[in-house]
Amino acid sequence: MKKALLTAAMALTFAGLLAGCGSEDAGKDKSEDKVVIGYFPNINHVPAMVAKEKGLFEKELGDGTKVEYKTFAEGGSFMTALKTGEIDAGLVGPGPAMNNYSTGADVQIIAGASTGGTVVLARKGSGIESVEDFAGKTFITPGVGCTHDVQYETFLEEAGITSERIGGTMKHLTGNPAQYSAMLKAGKIDIAVAPEPWAAVIEKETDAQVVIGWDEVSFGETLPASVMVASGEMTKENPEKIQKIIDAHKESIEFINENPEEAKEITIKDIKATTKQDLDKEVVDLAWERIGFTYEVDQDAIQAFSDSSYALKFLKDKPDFTALIDKNFIN
Protein backbone atom coordinates (compact mmCIF):
# COMPACT_ATOMS: atom_id res chain seq x y z
CA MET A 1 0.00 0.00 0.00
CA LYS A 2 2.81 2.36 0.96
CA LYS A 3 4.67 1.81 -2.30
CA ALA A 4 1.50 2.48 -4.22
CA LEU A 5 1.06 5.74 -2.38
CA LEU A 6 4.63 6.75 -3.00
CA THR A 7 4.57 5.89 -6.67
CA ALA A 8 1.34 7.84 -6.98
CA ALA A 9 3.43 10.81 -5.93
CA MET A 10 1.38 11.25 -2.78
CA ALA A 11 3.00 13.41 -0.21
CA LEU A 12 2.70 14.98 3.13
CA THR A 13 2.91 18.52 4.29
CA PHE A 14 0.37 19.21 6.81
CA ALA A 15 -0.36 18.28 10.37
CA GLY A 16 -2.35 19.34 13.46
CA LEU A 17 -5.66 19.81 15.28
CA LEU A 18 -6.70 22.69 17.54
CA ALA A 19 -9.00 25.28 19.10
CA GLY A 20 -8.92 28.98 19.92
CA CYS A 21 -10.25 32.49 19.44
CA GLY A 22 -9.05 36.02 18.88
CA SER A 23 -8.83 38.79 16.39
CA GLU A 24 -7.33 38.45 12.93
CA ASP A 25 -4.68 41.06 13.73
CA ALA A 26 -3.68 39.64 17.11
CA GLY A 27 -0.91 37.35 15.94
CA LYS A 28 1.23 39.30 13.50
CA ASP A 29 2.16 42.64 12.03
CA LYS A 30 0.01 43.22 8.95
CA SER A 31 2.23 46.06 7.77
CA GLU A 32 4.73 43.67 6.25
CA ASP A 33 4.22 40.96 3.63
CA LYS A 34 4.87 37.92 5.77
CA VAL A 35 3.67 34.32 5.67
CA VAL A 36 3.87 32.11 8.76
CA ILE A 37 3.74 28.32 8.27
CA GLY A 38 2.88 26.03 11.18
CA TYR A 39 3.76 22.36 11.61
CA PHE A 40 4.54 19.66 14.19
CA PRO A 41 7.93 18.01 14.90
CA ASN A 42 6.91 14.55 13.72
CA ILE A 43 7.34 12.53 10.54
CA ASN A 44 3.81 13.18 9.31
CA HIS A 45 4.95 16.79 8.86
CA VAL A 46 8.11 16.18 6.85
CA PRO A 47 6.77 18.16 3.85
CA ALA A 48 6.98 21.36 5.92
CA MET A 49 10.49 20.50 7.11
CA VAL A 50 11.73 19.85 3.58
CA ALA A 51 10.07 22.99 2.22
CA LYS A 52 11.72 24.97 5.02
CA GLU A 53 15.17 23.48 4.44
CA LYS A 54 15.00 23.89 0.67
CA GLY A 55 13.48 27.38 0.77
CA LEU A 56 10.53 26.25 -1.37
CA PHE A 57 7.97 28.63 0.11
CA GLU A 58 10.41 31.50 -0.28
CA LYS A 59 11.04 30.55 -3.89
CA GLU A 60 7.35 30.38 -4.82
CA LEU A 61 6.25 33.45 -2.85
CA GLY A 62 9.10 35.61 -4.12
CA ASP A 63 11.72 37.89 -2.57
CA GLY A 64 9.11 40.38 -1.39
CA THR A 65 7.62 37.93 1.12
CA LYS A 66 9.22 36.98 4.41
CA VAL A 67 8.50 33.36 5.44
CA GLU A 68 8.54 32.30 9.08
CA TYR A 69 7.86 28.94 10.73
CA LYS A 70 6.22 27.99 14.01
CA THR A 71 6.04 24.51 15.53
CA PHE A 72 3.32 23.01 17.72
CA ALA A 73 3.06 19.97 19.99
CA GLU A 74 -0.67 19.37 19.43
CA GLY A 75 -3.60 20.40 17.28
CA GLY A 76 -5.45 22.67 19.70
CA SER A 77 -2.72 25.27 19.88
CA PHE A 78 -2.20 25.08 16.12
CA MET A 79 -5.87 25.79 15.43
CA THR A 80 -5.88 28.67 17.89
CA ALA A 81 -2.91 30.16 16.08
CA LEU A 82 -4.67 29.79 12.72
CA LYS A 83 -7.87 31.41 13.99
CA THR A 84 -6.06 34.35 15.59
CA GLY A 85 -3.90 34.98 12.52
CA GLU A 86 -0.65 33.97 14.24
CA ILE A 87 -0.05 31.56 11.35
CA ASP A 88 -1.35 31.71 7.78
CA ALA A 89 -1.26 28.05 6.80
CA GLY A 90 0.33 24.79 7.83
CA LEU A 91 0.11 21.10 8.54
CA VAL A 92 -2.22 19.61 11.13
CA GLY A 93 -4.13 16.40 11.65
CA PRO A 94 -7.59 16.23 10.07
CA GLY A 95 -9.22 15.74 13.49
CA PRO A 96 -8.56 19.25 14.85
CA ALA A 97 -9.43 20.81 11.49
CA MET A 98 -12.78 18.99 11.38
CA ASN A 99 -13.59 19.60 15.03
CA ASN A 100 -13.01 23.33 14.67
CA TYR A 101 -14.86 23.56 11.36
CA SER A 102 -17.88 21.86 12.91
CA THR A 103 -18.05 24.59 15.57
CA GLY A 104 -17.92 27.41 13.03
CA ALA A 105 -14.19 28.04 12.68
CA ASP A 106 -13.01 29.53 9.38
CA VAL A 107 -10.72 26.71 8.26
CA GLN A 108 -10.28 24.90 4.95
CA ILE A 109 -8.30 21.81 4.03
CA ILE A 110 -6.43 22.76 0.85
CA ALA A 111 -4.17 19.71 0.34
CA GLY A 112 -3.10 16.43 1.82
CA ALA A 113 0.34 15.81 3.27
CA SER A 114 0.76 12.31 4.67
CA THR A 115 -1.01 9.07 5.49
CA GLY A 116 -0.38 6.42 8.14
CA GLY A 117 1.98 6.85 11.05
CA THR A 118 -0.33 6.08 14.00
CA VAL A 119 0.96 3.15 16.08
CA VAL A 120 -0.40 1.71 19.35
CA LEU A 121 2.16 0.29 21.78
CA ALA A 122 1.83 -1.47 25.15
CA ARG A 123 4.24 -1.02 28.06
CA LYS A 124 6.60 -3.88 28.74
CA GLY A 125 5.35 -5.74 31.82
CA SER A 126 1.80 -4.36 31.49
CA GLY A 127 0.36 -7.79 30.73
CA ILE A 128 -1.12 -6.47 27.51
CA GLU A 129 -0.73 -8.83 24.58
CA SER A 130 -3.80 -7.94 22.52
CA VAL A 131 -6.95 -5.80 22.48
CA GLU A 132 -8.62 -8.28 24.84
CA ASP A 133 -6.27 -7.00 27.58
CA PHE A 134 -7.11 -3.28 27.16
CA ALA A 135 -10.04 -2.97 29.59
CA GLY A 136 -9.21 -0.95 32.71
CA LYS A 137 -5.84 0.21 31.37
CA THR A 138 -4.54 3.77 30.92
CA PHE A 139 -3.79 5.10 27.43
CA ILE A 140 -2.33 8.36 26.19
CA THR A 141 -2.85 10.37 22.98
CA PRO A 142 -1.61 13.84 21.98
CA GLY A 143 -5.06 15.39 22.58
CA VAL A 144 -8.73 14.65 23.22
CA GLY A 145 -10.42 14.12 19.86
CA CYS A 146 -7.17 14.47 17.96
CA THR A 147 -6.65 12.38 14.84
CA HIS A 148 -4.77 9.63 16.68
CA ASP A 149 -7.31 9.58 19.50
CA VAL A 150 -10.26 9.13 17.12
CA GLN A 151 -8.43 6.39 15.21
CA TYR A 152 -7.71 4.52 18.44
CA GLU A 153 -11.11 4.98 20.07
CA THR A 154 -12.84 3.92 16.85
CA PHE A 155 -10.78 0.73 16.91
CA LEU A 156 -11.70 0.25 20.59
CA GLU A 157 -15.40 0.69 19.94
CA GLU A 158 -15.32 -1.89 17.17
CA ALA A 159 -13.73 -4.27 19.71
CA GLY A 160 -16.46 -3.50 22.27
CA ILE A 161 -14.26 -1.33 24.52
CA THR A 162 -14.66 2.38 25.40
CA SER A 163 -12.90 5.05 27.42
CA GLU A 164 -14.14 6.48 30.70
CA ARG A 165 -15.19 9.61 28.81
CA ILE A 166 -18.14 7.73 27.30
CA GLY A 167 -18.85 5.25 30.06
CA GLY A 168 -16.07 2.72 29.56
CA THR A 169 -13.20 1.50 31.72
CA MET A 170 -10.09 2.83 29.97
CA LYS A 171 -8.51 5.94 31.53
CA HIS A 172 -7.37 8.56 28.98
CA LEU A 173 -4.43 10.91 29.43
CA THR A 174 -3.01 13.43 26.96
CA GLY A 175 0.53 14.65 26.49
CA ASN A 176 3.48 15.43 24.24
CA PRO A 177 4.51 12.30 22.28
CA ALA A 178 8.18 13.12 22.88
CA GLN A 179 7.55 12.30 26.56
CA TYR A 180 5.80 8.96 26.07
CA SER A 181 8.92 6.83 26.51
CA ALA A 182 9.61 8.31 29.95
CA MET A 183 5.97 7.88 30.99
CA LEU A 184 5.97 4.24 29.92
CA LYS A 185 9.20 3.55 31.79
CA ALA A 186 7.75 5.17 34.92
CA GLY A 187 4.59 3.08 34.68
CA LYS A 188 2.36 6.14 34.39
CA ILE A 189 0.66 4.77 31.26
CA ASP A 190 -0.02 1.32 29.89
CA ILE A 191 -0.68 2.15 26.24
CA ALA A 192 0.78 4.86 24.01
CA VAL A 193 -1.05 5.94 20.84
CA ALA A 194 1.91 7.53 19.12
CA PRO A 195 2.58 9.31 15.82
CA GLU A 196 5.85 8.62 14.10
CA PRO A 197 8.75 8.97 14.76
CA TRP A 198 7.81 8.70 18.43
CA ALA A 199 6.40 5.19 18.03
CA ALA A 200 9.76 4.00 16.68
CA VAL A 201 11.56 5.87 19.49
CA ILE A 202 9.37 4.10 22.06
CA GLU A 203 10.13 0.70 20.54
CA LYS A 204 13.85 1.32 20.77
CA GLU A 205 13.97 2.98 24.20
CA THR A 206 11.42 0.95 26.15
CA ASP A 207 10.95 -2.44 24.44
CA ALA A 208 7.23 -1.66 24.24
CA GLN A 209 5.23 -4.03 22.06
CA VAL A 210 3.26 -2.89 19.03
CA VAL A 211 -0.28 -4.16 19.64
CA ILE A 212 -2.04 -2.27 16.82
CA GLY A 213 -0.03 -1.50 13.70
CA TRP A 214 -0.34 1.63 11.59
CA ASP A 215 -2.17 -0.36 8.91
CA GLU A 216 -4.48 -2.06 11.45
CA VAL A 217 -5.70 0.94 13.46
CA SER A 218 -8.96 2.44 12.17
CA PHE A 219 -8.54 4.56 9.02
CA GLY A 220 -4.81 3.76 9.10
CA GLU A 221 -4.33 3.37 5.36
CA THR A 222 -6.93 5.79 4.01
CA LEU A 223 -7.18 8.81 6.29
CA PRO A 224 -4.79 11.72 5.76
CA ALA A 225 -2.55 11.77 8.82
CA SER A 226 -1.78 15.41 8.17
CA VAL A 227 -3.30 18.00 5.88
CA MET A 228 -2.46 21.50 4.72
CA VAL A 229 -4.94 24.05 6.01
CA ALA A 230 -5.59 27.78 5.74
CA SER A 231 -8.43 30.11 6.63
CA GLY A 232 -11.37 30.28 4.26
CA GLU A 233 -10.95 34.04 4.22
CA MET A 234 -7.41 33.73 2.90
CA THR A 235 -8.36 31.22 0.20
CA LYS A 236 -11.03 33.64 -1.06
CA GLU A 237 -9.21 36.95 -0.66
CA ASN A 238 -5.70 35.88 -1.63
CA PRO A 239 -5.97 32.74 -3.82
CA GLU A 240 -2.73 33.62 -5.65
CA LYS A 241 -0.75 33.41 -2.42
CA ILE A 242 -2.47 30.15 -1.43
CA GLN A 243 -1.65 28.68 -4.84
CA LYS A 244 2.03 29.54 -4.36
CA ILE A 245 2.00 27.91 -0.93
CA ILE A 246 0.45 24.76 -2.41
CA ASP A 247 2.89 24.74 -5.32
CA ALA A 248 5.76 24.76 -2.83
CA HIS A 249 4.06 22.06 -0.79
CA LYS A 250 3.63 19.83 -3.85
CA GLU A 251 7.26 20.35 -4.80
CA SER A 252 8.30 19.32 -1.30
CA ILE A 253 6.27 16.10 -1.46
CA GLU A 254 7.70 15.22 -4.84
CA PHE A 255 11.20 15.78 -3.42
CA ILE A 256 10.47 13.48 -0.47
CA ASN A 257 9.28 10.67 -2.70
CA GLU A 258 12.22 11.05 -5.10
CA ASN A 259 14.93 11.64 -2.45
CA PRO A 260 13.90 9.74 0.70
CA GLU A 261 17.39 9.50 2.20
CA GLU A 262 18.03 13.24 1.98
CA ALA A 263 14.52 13.89 3.29
CA LYS A 264 15.33 11.69 6.30
CA GLU A 265 18.48 13.72 7.00
CA ILE A 266 16.44 16.93 6.90
CA THR A 267 13.87 15.39 9.25
CA ILE A 268 16.47 14.33 11.81
CA LYS A 269 18.03 17.80 11.79
CA ASP A 270 14.73 19.65 12.07
CA ILE A 271 13.34 17.51 14.88
CA LYS A 272 16.57 17.91 16.85
CA ALA A 273 16.42 21.69 16.44
CA THR A 274 12.82 21.75 17.67
CA THR A 275 12.76 19.09 20.41
CA LYS A 276 16.49 18.78 21.29
CA GLN A 277 16.11 15.05 20.67
CA ASP A 278 18.65 13.40 18.37
CA LEU A 279 16.89 10.61 16.47
CA ASP A 280 18.87 7.58 15.35
CA LYS A 281 18.79 6.88 11.64
CA GLU A 282 17.41 3.37 12.27
CA VAL A 283 14.49 4.90 14.18
CA VAL A 284 13.68 7.18 11.26
CA ASP A 285 14.03 4.28 8.82
CA LEU A 286 11.48 2.26 10.82
CA ALA A 287 9.07 5.18 11.10
CA TRP A 288 9.39 5.97 7.39
CA GLU A 289 8.05 2.53 6.49
CA ARG A 290 4.77 3.42 8.23
CA ILE A 291 4.18 6.69 6.38
CA GLY A 292 3.03 7.69 2.91
CA PHE A 293 3.34 11.21 1.48
CA THR A 294 0.73 12.72 -0.83
CA TYR A 295 -0.91 16.07 -1.52
CA GLU A 296 -4.17 14.39 -2.57
CA VAL A 297 -7.10 14.28 -0.13
CA ASP A 298 -9.48 11.33 0.22
CA GLN A 299 -12.79 13.10 0.87
CA ASP A 300 -14.68 9.86 1.55
CA ALA A 301 -12.16 8.92 4.25
CA ILE A 302 -12.51 12.37 5.82
CA GLN A 303 -16.30 11.98 6.01
CA ALA A 304 -16.09 8.44 7.43
CA PHE A 305 -13.62 9.64 10.06
CA SER A 306 -15.91 12.53 10.98
CA ASP A 307 -18.92 10.24 11.28
CA SER A 308 -16.91 8.18 13.76
CA SER A 309 -15.92 11.35 15.67
CA TYR A 310 -19.62 12.12 16.02
CA ALA A 311 -20.46 8.58 17.12
CA LEU A 312 -17.73 8.82 19.78
CA LYS A 313 -19.21 12.14 21.00
CA PHE A 314 -16.23 14.28 20.04
CA LEU A 315 -18.64 16.26 17.84
CA LYS A 316 -22.03 17.49 19.04
CA ASP A 317 -23.71 17.43 15.63
CA LYS A 318 -23.37 14.98 12.76
CA PRO A 319 -21.23 16.89 10.27
CA ASP A 320 -21.14 17.31 6.52
CA PHE A 321 -17.59 18.15 5.48
CA THR A 322 -18.24 18.61 1.78
CA ALA A 323 -17.36 22.32 2.00
CA LEU A 324 -14.39 21.80 4.33
CA ILE A 325 -12.13 20.58 1.54
CA ASP A 326 -11.08 22.93 -1.26
CA LYS A 327 -9.31 20.99 -4.02
CA ASN A 328 -9.02 23.93 -6.42
CA PHE A 329 -5.39 24.50 -5.52
CA ILE A 330 -4.12 20.93 -6.07
CA ASN A 331 -5.84 20.23 -9.39
UniProtKB/TrEMBL annotation:
GO terms assigned for molecular function: ATPase-coupled transmembrane transporter activity
Domain of life of the organism encoding this protein: Bacteria
InterPro entries from the UniProt entry: ABC_SsuA_sub-bd, NrtA/CpmA_ABC-bd_dom, Solute-binding_3/MltF_N
Record field: transmembrane: none
Localisation: Cell inner membrane; Periplasm
UniProt keyword annotation of Ligase present: no
PROSITE patterns, per database record: PROKAR_LIPOPROTEIN (PS51257)
Entry annotated with the keyword Lipoprotein: yes
Chain ranges of the Solute-binding protein family 3/N-terminal domain: 34-259
Signal sequence range: 1-19
Chief location of this protein within or outside the cell: membrane
A Gene Ontology term for the protein's cellular component: plasma membrane
Keywords linked to the UniProt accession: Cell inner membrane, Cell membrane, Lipoprotein, Membrane, Palmitate, Signal, Transport
Gene3D superfamilies: Periplasmic binding protein-like II
Family as reported in the entry's similarity comment: Belongs to the bacterial solute-binding protein SsuA/TauA family.
Name under which the protein is recorded: NitT/TauT family transport system substrate-binding protein
Organism, scientific name: Mesobacillus foraminis
